[in-house]
Amino acid sequence: MEDALRALHQLSLPAPSPAQLLDLLDSHSDAAERVAQLIALASAPGEGSEGDAADLLGADLLTQAVRAILANLASALEAARAAHEKEREQLQKPAAVKMLPRKAHVARSTAALKRAARAEEESGPMRPRLVFDGGPSYVSRASLAELEPISAADMKLVPRRYEGRVLYLRTVAPPVPYVGLLLEGEDVAGNIVPVAVSHATVQPQGMDAAAALFPVGTLIAIKEPYLSPNYAARAAPGKPLAGIRIDSPTDLKVFRKGETGPPGFELAPAAPAAASASLPWLDDPVALETSSEQSAAVTALLAAGRPGAAWRLLQRARTAEKSATPEHLALEGRIRYHAEDWAGAAAAFEEAMALSEASAGSDLQDGAQSLGDGAQSLGDGGILPPMPLQACLRQARAHAERFTLEPSAAEVRGLYFAAAAGARRLDVRTYVGPAAVRDIEGAGRGLVATRDVQPGEVILLCRAVAPQYPSGPPVLRLNLENGLVSTSSQIAAQSGLIHALVDRPELQLPVLGLTAGPDLPYSAFVREPYPVSVPSLREDAHERPAVDAAYVDGVLRFNAFGPSAAIDAASGAVFPRAMPHPLPAILNHACLPNVSTTFHGDVLLSRALVPLPKGIEIVHPYVRGELPYAVRQAQLSKHAFQCACELCRLDAADGDGAQMRARLVAGELPAILARSGSVLKMRVNATEAPDAKEREAHEDIVEALEGIIDRMAATYQPGRGSLRPELFDVFRSCAAHRAVTDPSRSAQCELDALACAGAEAREDWAAPHSGTGEPAAVLSRLPALHLDASIEAMLASSTRLEASGQPECAIRWTATAVWAHDCIIGGGLDVLVDRFGERYGPALRLWQQRFGRP
Ligand SMILES: C[S@@+](CC[C@H](N)C(=O)[O-])C[C@H]1O[C@@H](n2cnc3c(N)ncnc32)[C@H](O)[C@@H]1O
């Protein structure tokens, strides 16, 4: 991989994009040729700087060169597959290991370091990276004291996991960073053992940062080491070589100054870097001398997203100093705030202020500001940005006081606009509305309504645990067994979550208490009662947990929501996964949901779409209910359950009809809708009457649309009712054409579209609004599918009715849009205007004039 990238770099060509890499990894496609041409085109003759590869070689030669480079990459992939398969076979029949002599190891390690330095220099830190996985993954649950030391010479068979044993090594070279880290260790007998650590860091590191984490001479212990014939495949692939592969970084312990070294091993622990300069890898800093050192370290730990370590450090400092200082209390407030303990944070801020007042009016309390309802953005690591103590206190109190109150429109508005402005980690309190965790027959646990709930009520407002926004190089991980490709966001989320669980072991219950897909057995936490709120910081001593990287991957794959998408190479399915929102992850799936879930930065907001009677299961869609039945089933297949929601029951009852419909949707429908779009573009002035030619074009297309409606209608079982999501777009197009030719029938078409998405009309839907109060909506029940497009349907209908001189009918449609939007997202008119104002400004302005708050 690195060789191919270097070769491209030498030709001044860009590295393949992640999407192109995905194409290249698909051994069944002819993508290699396409990618070769695209990459070669990136340096077309005459366009680049003088003397670039295209000028020197000419386009044809250049394409040939790229082809050759990509062919090398393809054979590297093949070699990786072959090595993986061999290792898999050998697992049953391990062979005698052939360890290289020390001299050869030193030469190899020196060359690897040189190569890494050259790659960093030539291709830069943002060069894309590729690693592999697949097959068993290991984690040791034993404590060091339970394990018996082993030396490299005793590890005679490969591949083998040396259960019950621990290998002590001292590093003899700086680490080689790639996605994971490669270390070189020496045991007491002087044998060199290569070690590859996956998820050593949350994002790939440069050589200097990696060297600071593992300075030469660091003493390490590897619990129940797995000796692999291809040790580096998951961290930094290269030629197959026997070495230790660490899948879960909690299997690796680093000894720090002051810690007791391994019994019987004459290896002195290495001195750690100063805690304030560089935080120790995955551990808490120890032995800080001065109060200012402690404060600096706590702040650095918070910024690094390690509130647990910050908390433990603070507690140790407190114990040493006996009485709390205002600075310590302020730090405690920040840590508790980070951990969503608003009441605890408020108490600590208050005490800090009282103490600082007592100690001669410290400036901690100056500059108080009102924070209002607007959501603030949190700083690095999800912490409160620097602000006066009094402001911190207000904010903590506001969150604590609102804890049980349903989020207001102003709060949701603040959340929406903060996220729209690019904020990633939002300062909002969590809220768990009328929902509780219950066992659901045939579906594990789920959430049910604890009372009758009205449409629009907030069910959940939750922040993600340790969300990651990868800013490093693009990383891909190819599973050599099932072809699944994980992208940067998935890998960073996995590494970030492992590190977060080490930092805050109390988060294991909400995170590892989730299931990890049908292929992994439940963790022990799944059997415990699932926590509804975020567990508080643990007061007891910290024992570093063993975190199984494979289980965390499964949890993310089967539970995480998030804005970034990943592609299943096998099925081509695209599904979002990056951020774990623990409690919302307990929601089970239905293609026809009864809540609307939206994402704002790292915050998830779920509101009821329809009335929820007490005890009903709350369900949301893992895959888009608008997709044809067969596609939904294929996308859900990884979960290994059969969805039995109302939509699936109806689609299943349609039998062959559902398949015929899918064919129409994929075949003829797009062409008719495209034609419809072109005809609609003929309307330059919406208020002008169409000439005969235009009218005829609209009438023709309506005929074609009605034809396909009839053919699709024949694919539904008689008596199925109006829930027909595939017809939504067809009726919407009809509405747009009818608005030109026969305006009186346009609103009916929009209503038909909404009914296809699950809405129900009021009997008096066509009557004009009368009186002075707010108009009644035209719907009695909101659609559950095509949510945003449904709001457009309502606003479009309003706009047309207003234009055709029926303002009191129009205003009822706007009222419906306002209601629907409040139930789907909320946040009031400003949010609706921000999202739809550009296209439907006049309709929304009219509403604002008549019913908007001043
Ligand atoms: C995100 S979790 C939901 C919580 C899960 N029920 C639990 O107990 O942890 C997803 C898993 O829940 C189960 N599940 C979700 N929706 C389901 C449904 N409609 N029918 C059956 N099982 C379902 C599947 O096992 C799926 O992989």
If you had to describe this structure to a student in words, what would you say it looks like?
- The protein is of the alpha+beta class and 854 residues long.
- The chain has 6 domains: 92 residues, no CATH class; 153 residues, OB fold (Dihydrolipoamide Acetyltransferase, E2P); 139 residues, no CATH class; 108 residues, Beta Complex (Beta-clip-like); 105 residues, no CATH class; 198 residues, Serine Threonine Protein Phosphatase 5, Tetratricopeptide repeat.
- Helix content is 42%, strand content 13%.
- It is built from 26 helices and 29 strands.
- Strands 3, 5, 6, 7, 8, 9, 10, 11, 12 and 13 form a 10-stranded mixed sheet that branches.
- Helix 1 packs antiparallel against helix 5 and helix 20 runs antiparallel to helix 21.
- The radius of gyration is 31 Å and the shape is globular.
- The N and C termini lie far apart (62 Å).
- About 5% of the residues have low confidence.
- Bound molecules: S-adenosylmethionine.
- The site of S-adenosylmethionine has 17 residues, from strand 18, helix 16 and strand 24.
- This is SET domain-containing protein.
- InterPro entries: Gramillin-biosynth_MTr, SET_dom, SET_dom_sf.
